[in-house]
Amino acid sequence: MFRRTLEDYKVLLRSIPSATVTCFVVSVILMNLLANKELISLPWLALDCGFTLSWVSFLCMDMICKRFGPKASVRVSLLALSINLAVSALFWLVSLAPGMWGAYYDTGSLEVNAALNATIGGSWYVVLGSSLAMLCSSFVNSHVNQFIGHLTDNGSFATFALRSYVSTGVGQLVDNLVFAIVVSHVFFGWSWLQVLTCSVTGALAELACEVLLSPVGFRVASAWEREGVGEEYVRTHASEREARA
After folding, report:
1. DSSP secondary structure string, 39-86?
2. What is the pLDDT of residues 226-244, one digit of tens each?
3. Which residue has the higher pLDDT, 3 or 68?
4. Rg of the chain over CA atoms, in angstroms?
5. Distance (Å, rounded) from C-alpha 78 to C-alpha 89?
6. pTM surpassing 0.90?
7. Per residue in 88-130, pLDDT tens?
8. Which of 114, 124, 48 is nearest to 85 (CA)?
9. How many Cβ atoms sit within 10 Å of the Cβ of residue 148?
10. Which residues lie below 8 Å from residue 54, measured CB to CB, with a gap of 6+?
11. Closest of 131, 168, 147, 181 to residue 28, by C-alpha
12. How far is 219 from 226, CA to CA, in rounded Å?
């Protein structure tokens, strides 16, 4: 079973264009790092700077799901999550290393150096919460996207938009809710009203960003289909579905 999964991963990673996988992984790493800085903080809306990139990962998932299916989208999400955890561990080790950050020599302040170590090193509960949130949201996003696609997809932008917008809205809501419950409510003292309100408004703001770039995602995914990109993986899994049927 493990060997079969590993071989399937190899075929999948050979099939998906490397630029898409790279954008996906980098967006996940950077949005977790940028989440350390507050962007908007209101009683009904809370956004950190990770918001500027969170929509990228969901757009990549929607593109992958359209061409390769939900299983492929979830597997690439797991890969991105694993790399992010490895990078987080590296950042934590670097924060423990002796020495000064470049900002120390500009300010001469030990407090600045300590703050940078704390930011780069991160907090275990933030990393845990964001990882759990991504795991849940990627599963929900991919399967909702595929479900709607089975019902409506005729190859047009309108149906791509429908499946992407609904799945992203639901997925982002799940992502925000899981993180808010696990981290913001438990460690930051958010009320349940704040958890719900900020999760909903945050999901709407993140969805709006994807709406702006969804035409690009549609054109790229459609080009993959026209050019037969990843045909080996698509053909293999189509045969498996037919055999099960």
Report:
1. EEE-SS-EEETTHHHHHHHHHHHHHHHHHH-HHHHHHHHHHHHHHHHH
2. 999 999 898 887 655 544 4
3. 68
4. 20
5. 16
6. no
7. 999 999 999 988 988 888 888 889 889 888 888 877 888 888 8
8. 124
9. 17
10. 27, 31, 172, 175, 206, 209
11. 131
12. 10
Domain count, the chain: 1
CA distances for 107 relative to 45, 94, 100, 101, angstroms? 34, 21, 11, 11
Q: Which helix (H) or strand (E) holds 38?
A: strand 38-41
Q: Are 47 and 205 in contact (CB under 8 A)?
A: yes
Are 221 and 67 contacting, i.e. CB atoms less than 8 angstroms apart?
Answer: yes
Question: What beta strand segments (E) does 118-238 contain?
Answer: none
pLDDT per position as a tens digit, 111-120: 988 988 888 8
Q: Which range of residues forms the domain containing residue 180?
A: 2-244
Beta strand ranges found along 100-182 (DSSP E): none
